[in-house]
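lol ok so funny story. i was supposed to be doing the assay writeup but got distracted and ended up predicting the structure for this chain instead. priorities right. anyway since i did it might as well share w the group, maybe its usefull for someone
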Amino acid sequence: ADYIKNMITGAAQMDGAIVVVSAPDGPMPQTREHVLLARQVNVPAIVVYLNKCDMVDDEELLELVELELRELLTKYEFPGDEIPIVRGSALKALEGDETEQESILKLMAEVDRYIPTPERDKDRPFLLPVEDVFTITGRGTVATGRIERGQVNTGDKVEILGLREKKMDTVVTGVEMFRKILDYGEAGDNVGVLLRGIDRKEIERGMVIAAPGSTNIHTKFSCEVYILKKEEGGRHTPFFKGYRPQFYFRTTDVTGAVQLPEGVEMVMPGDNITMQVALITPIAMEEGLRFAIREGGRTVGAGVVVEIQE
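and the output, tada:
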């Protein structure tokens, strides 16, 4: 259960996953749950390690388990027929058995070969979540925040969007970091960007500044969420349909109405569930974006956008 919680609450997007399956047992219910979740949180590729193979001396049985695994992976829209499955025994490898240590090296070689090298954040289209806004007399409006992805240069055309129905076009007339003027800022930098022709009142925390056409605003989406247990500082009681908490996206809270799946009446602390949300104001979002669920500033859950509806 912790593993599932970590998958939903983890801040970074996973580049790939290794699914470990016991050869004597074959795919277990949690294997199915992990594969389903990997599909829902957009893990791009999976490699399988078939463990405890030293405990199975029947080649046909191993082939049967592999077949079952490939079917399971295909069912959840992974390319089951091409996913590498490496056989071995992790315990024997740990104990120093040379052929089994080879299986671990082979597993890592398959990870290198099969899992694609991800596009790093600075190569993606520019996006800056706005944290603060102020005016510099004689120069105009400055928005500050940490660049989430991409790069911004003085002179770049950008869009400001979120929290309003319409987006605004502007040009970055300066990039500053710690009072120094820069040529550009890139993913990970905390910067202030000077925006041409934008009034202080037109932009606020919770909006994003982005490369034109690279992201859109939405209000309705389905998501995979984990609801914190009481011991984790979460709710003490379940919630029911009609629940309206705040959804914290990047730098701001927006109220949203929750719709539970068919046949689900309530959600208990400690549960993970797929649900639909309708926000009262639009937010710039895309599939794979993570958020927190809050009540009065206290975090009660975490989630990831699975599918955008409108």
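The first strand starts at residue 17 and ends at 22. The two ends are 31 Å apart (CA to CA).
back to the writeup now i swear
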